[in-house]
Amino acid sequence: MSDDPRRPEPEEAAGHGTGAAPEGGRTRGGEAVEELSAQIRQLSLDRRRLHCLLDAVVAISADMDTRTVLRHLVRAGTDLVAARYGALGVLSEGGEIIDLITVGAADAERLLAESGLPQSHGLLGRLIEDPKPLRVDDIAADPRSVGFPEGHPVMTTLLGVPLSVRDTVYGNLYLADKEDGTPFADADEALLTALASAASVSIENSRLYGLLKRSAEQFQRRLLPVLPDLSPLLVEARYEPASELPHLGGDWYDALGLPDGAVLVVVGDVTGHDVEAAPLMGQIRNMLRALAFDRCGPPSLIVDRLDRALTAVDEPPAATLVLARIERDPAAGYVLSWTNAGHPPPLLITAEGTAQWLAPDAHGIPVGVQPGLPRPDHRHPLPPESTLLLFTDGLIERRDRDIDAGLRDLADHAAALASDPLDALCDALLGHQDGYDDDVALLALRVPRLPG
What we know:
Layout: H1 10-16, H2 28-61, H3 66-80, E1 83-91, E2 97-103, H4 108-115, H5 122-129, E3 134-136, E4 158-165, E5 168-178, H6 186-223, E6 234-240, E7 251-257, E8 263-270, H7 277-295, H8 299-310, E9 319-329, E10 333-341, E11 347-349, E12 355-357, E13 378-382, E14 387-391, H9 403-416, H10 422-430, E15 440-446
Antiparallel strand pairs: 1-2, 1-5, 3-4, 4-5, 6-15, 7-8, 8-9, 9-10, 10-13, 11-12, 11-14, 14-15
């Protein structure tokens, strides 16, 4: 035993006195450190989940197509809580599932084709009837479960949350079976609920975008004419809006028979893509019709009169166009006469599949720029069964392609379709690519076979 009271006894020095570790071998300080480490790990996990949630919301908001947004949502939900399977059931106004978007299930499309869409009963029906988050730890043991159709993956756990848009349940997001085999927890439910709440804004935006797109396209199409019967000439026209907003544009086409027996065709493009371009296009089209009927003069004269008439308009619009007359010459057959006001040239395809651009060196400038400048006329014979194509630049222009390459591609493609019916040729030309950076107006005219 020590004579110095300040020095600990040997047992104390060895850790068996005051402050000794409890029987488990851990000090109170060690427990605190372990608890603090656990809190830091949880905080780090929560931060990672928050970042994942924000990333998911950004990804969902990046697209305006409703079905693409919904697919992003299902994928984001499964990734966010590390689930094996995900599905989103879109509901009708009556609460029936009208579409199902799935992630993780192999052969999902085949299963849907064989079994049809899920019915609104069982656990799915429970969420439809009572749109609140639903968690099930054992699907097979739950009395509300009605089982799975043949060939469906066997699932054990379920987490479902409603998807509301403007206080209306748009659908339900379902996840099944976490990757680590554990049941879904409160944190998973909170994350999925937050994701569904944020996604509702993107869904509403995409729906409004789709409505605006359809309304704009319908308005644009109403401004375009129904083509008359111009027999024996055949004529077809197509209009395709740009793949992205704005969908209101100034592209147009027109064709009509004139009092002197000739046929007038025109394709043009008013500068701009907004709510003003489309009505201006309608005005210019109507003015051209009136001017053409008035005098039945050469194309250059009609366009020159249009150019001068536009000077009476406050802030006259600029427009490019090709205006052409097709008339029957007893000696030479059908002959095309045209003038070009800063527009892509016409393309002539013979019955044998030869493509020729009608692009003489002399051409005019767009209308609405500087009235009074000369506008040359050109003439060219139209061989029997040949096809004349007039179009706007949206058909040949792409952000990632040179315009000369676009012209070559169009000529090659059209030449290969020379013997196709005219309507099929137009459909094929517009179906050549998935989308367009700009509006497209296309007018095709086919000359009849010579009687013989």
